[in-house]
Amino acid sequence: MTSDSTIAIKKQLLQICIDHQLKRVEHARKAMDDAQQSANSEERSTAGDKYDTSRAMSQNVRNMNAKQLQEALKDLATLQQINPQISPLAVCVGSVVKTTAGNYFIAISGGPYTVLKETYYSVSTAAPLGQILLGKKAGDTFLFRGKTFSISALF
């Protein structure tokens, strides 16, 4: 695999993850705003308890979406720190790791993504597999869920 093709794969994986995070940010902001509007639009009625309960529930939904927004922004910031031009000697954030267990993009937790007809799983360094892979090099083996796997390529 050439340097240009590995950089192209990394760039595509990075862009897919960034696009996904931008959608998460947009969705969380909209849901948070909708919940806030709902809380603000509750009218006081003669049944005061109902008003207070509805307002509190709307506020809880808003807070939950605010937390999701914060997580999405944190993940987006992690992605924006990745330089796809760098080819590391050991697994770190931004690495693409090809193993006998599958192909991984070490960045944030995400779904499987297909690039050039190959599937790559986006894995956070906080995930068990991400923790195991950190610091490993091409040719190294590792134990995961009771099975031994090897790293065939790292870029």
From TrEMBL:
<feature type="compositionally biased region" description="Basic and acidic residues">
    <location>
        <begin position="41"/>
        <end position="52"/>
    </location>
</feature>
<protein>
    <submittedName>
        <fullName>3-oxoacyl-ACP synthase</fullName>
    </submittedName>
</protein>
<feature type="region of interest" description="Disordered">
    <location>
        <begin position="28"/>
        <end position="52"/>
    </location>
</feature>
